[in-house]
Amino acid sequence: MALNYETLIRAVSKSPEQRTITEVNDFIVPWLKQSLKKKQGIFQKISDDLIYDICKAIMLERRPAWDVVIRQNDPGDTFYIILQGSVNIYRLDDEIPKSSEAEVNFETEFIKVDNDPEKREEFIAQTFGNYIVTLVGGSDFGERALITNEPRSATVMTTSPTDLLVVDREVFNRTLKSAHEKELQDKTEFINRSPLFSSWSARLKRLVSLSLERGRFAYDSALYKQGTPADAVYFIWSGEVKLSMDPLLHWVQYPHLLPQSDPMKQRALELYLPMLQLSRQTHTMRSESFSIKRRSMTFAEAEKERAYRTIQVALLNTGDIIGLESFVCDLTTHMNSARCTAPCDLFYILKHNFTRLQKRHATQGLSERLREIVLLTLQAYPSRILNLPLFTSLMRRQLAPVIIDEQQHYQNKQSWIFRIHNNSNSVCYIYLLLYFNYSLIELYIYIEYSSITNTITSSANT
């Protein structure tokens, strides 16, 4: 493999005029077809003839670690494909151009913090803005400036020694531009049609577009599995996704949310062995994985037992959102598994980018809107699922409205307190709070007796 890669490097290092037909056909074209077409990207859609045209004209750039490939607000005339290595994308939301003096200062100051990872990341964030995403081998970037003729919308920096294939504007226009234009049009159409984003300002919609990624998944592909890190929110553009879950696993995933005295907890601990693993693929984040203690069971018996415990939750299709419950309830891992029951075309936003958008849109009540969407989604679930301990806990804690005087959300509030004596002479207090919020009326009833508090929440549209 190393020899093949070095042969590929030798071929693309030559100028297009010096490359032989053998080098293009035997080394460059096969790599692009095998390595790029299997990615969830634009190269799935273009023809082999266009790939051949690209291979004849591409150039190679070899960049060291922590080298700036693209700088936000600079003019853009090239498109990049990552051959090997990785890059981080950063964006300054204020879009204030950096002066040439600031660039010189960056080079000087970066040397001082290069050996300290924490200070280095802090310095990069201060200079280039919010971290957006990490791209690895087979990914591409730099197309937006070539399509819109606008300055670069973000800064791209290598995080390791990286080999890049470079496509100039002329080659891009005749091979890749139409496909990327269609991709950008689909993003814009999705944002304008989405009930969540359609009312946002043009500036915020642009931030959504920059944060939005796209993935295409074949039939029976696993979108994610229960217990894996909940690091994105997905929007179904087309296709169908089935959600399923193992309720026992919730005791291992979220012990702080579930009653510790429940007998199901002991069964879950006997069945699952929680293990913390270090994930080196995404910023050495700590992620949880769970393995079955089979003990006396064979593999087939264990799989049969797992299938018996698995509950089918919902079947989602175009327009539905996946993973929003984990985001709103601040769950670190997915509460369910998602599998495509048809070829799927999805848009998704990584969790940290969605959090950033939420903060930018905070003045318009996005948090409350997201909570309402999750509540409406859960109400469509069968009662046997809503009665599971995890959902009962989430409805009582994470999804319960904060009862405070929020003038920006509620125009009027009235409350009553009733003192009632029951047959056992114990005192029962009933607190009723009625919120008026334009077309929505929410009634919250709190019943308190002795040391036990029950909360009943109901809402009605008017």
The helix content, as a percent range, equals: 25-40%
Give the averaged pLDDT, no decimals. 77
Unreliable parts: 274-294, 403-462
Number of strands: 22
Span between termini: 66 Å
Strand order across the largest sheet: 1-8-3-6
Largest sheet: 4 strands, antiparallel
Strand portion, in percent? 25-35%
Q: What Rg is obtained from the alpha carbons, in whole angstroms?
A: 27 Å
Number of helices: 17
The 3D shape can be described as globular
Question: Which structural class matches the secondary elements?
Answer: alpha+beta
Describe it.
This protein has helices at residues 2-13, 21-36, 48-57, 100-113, 117-128, 143-148, 169-175, 177-193, 202-211, 249-253, 263-271, 299-309, 324-328, 351-360, 366-379, 383-386, 389-396, and strands at 59-63, 68-70, 78-84, 86-91, 130-136, 140-141, 155-158, 162-168, 212-217, 222-224, 232-238, 240-245, 272-278, 286-292, 311-317, 321-322, 337-340, 344-350, 412-421, 427-437, 440-449, 452-461. It is globular. The strands form six sheets. Strands 1-8-3-6 form a four-stranded antiparallel β-sheet. It contains 17 helices and 22 strands. The chain is an alpha+beta fold and 462 residues long. The protein is 37% helix and 30% strand. Strand 21 (440-449) and strand 22 (452-461) form a beta hairpin.
